[in-house]
Amino acid sequence: MSDPTLRVALFSGNYNYVTDGAAIALNHLVAHLERQGVECLVFSPTVDPPAFEPSGTVVSVPSVPLPGRSEYRVALGLPRGVRRQLEAFRPTLFHLSAPDLLGYAARRLALKWDVPAVASFHTRYDTYFRYYHAAWIERYVTRYLRHFYRYCEHVYVPSESTAQVLREQHMARDVRIWSRGVDDSLFYPGRRDMAWRRSLGISDDEVVVAFVGRLVLEKGIDAFAATVQGLQGRGIRHRVLVVGAGPEHDNFAARLPRDAVFTGYLHGEALARAYASADIFLNPSVTETFGIVTLESMASGLPSVCADATGSQSLVGDGATGFLVRPGDGAAYVDAVARLIAEPVLRARMGGEAHRRSRHYTWDAVMDELLVCYHEVLEAHRHLKGASPHGAERRAVRDPALT
């Protein structure tokens, strides 16, 4: 049965042309909404062929490759033809998933049409510039993000640690938690496959330290490589498993042992097998708002060593399911991984606890919570419009860009 009060227009910088945590979450959201009878229309750059088949209906928007990172695309806003499709859809809620040109154009249009807008915060874009010798830009990006999100009714973040950062930065008026889920029918310890390990040249008694994610600087690959080099320097026997692809592949490989295993991009059962067949998960990234790869590793029964930063802070129980390390403390990363390699009983105990805690995260539960928030926004908007016949006019001029 359809819900006539809620028609969601979702705007995404990447809905399904690159597989990442944000794209996975947004596709789960659209699939869940449609199962609940909510009509959705997605606006995003597209490529042919896509990385995976999308949930729902996608309207392609004009875009160009991102300079220096051509696997990603920059949407060029909402041209007239796309805007006509949006108007014909008659949305009652705009959901903005990125503060890019597309999101900015959609936010302005929502204000002009007096349609409430919400936003989801998937990535700490302001921190990216630290990895490309342009840290001075960070404060200006933060200022822009504050301007972008202040006109959204709700801003959804996937973890309390990220919410706290946004509140401290006065980033938005109303920050809510929209967590993430994991498919426990796909990711679980029983996927461990010793024959697969052996086919990669990994002995049964070797402890495998795994990295899973895009091979880009902002995912902490420098810290990962430095940790592995630290283990080598101490003469600690281990193997490295890297799951993922990206523009930094060659530079990353040059810093790792020659017997490091690179699988390339994996998904589905192949990805689940790789997680469960490792022994320790190492994620030094500080740019995550949640860390879906960390949750998937937990569901697979791995202890984690992660940066004590947004995302991981809300997932990893320090000393219970793994260790949190202060970003930049290279020796502490080596110490934590070395301890897990040396103590198989501790490794097994932490992996078991990680698997147990991961079962609290289900996609249906977190999507239902977001749906409640959507209806709260609609009700507040109806109340605002009913309170004053000029409410919409006053609302439309809140953004100086519209005046």
At the fold tier of CATH, the topology name of the largest domain is Rossmann fold
The CATH superfamily of the largest domain is Glycogen Phosphorylase B
Question: Strand sequence of the main sheet, in spatial order?
Answer: 3-2-1-6-7-8-9
Mean pLDDT level: 91
Q: Helicity level, as a percent range?
A: 40-55%
The total number of structural domains is 2
Computed CA radius of gyration, to the nearest angstrom: 22 Å
Extract low-pLDDT stretches. 390-403
* Series of H and E elements: EHEEEEHEHEHHEHEHEHEHEHEHEEHHHH
Number of H- or I-type helical stretches: 15
Q: Largest sheet at a glance?
A: 7 strands, parallel
Form type: elongated
Q: In what range is the share of β-strand residues?
A: 15-25%
Strands, count: 15
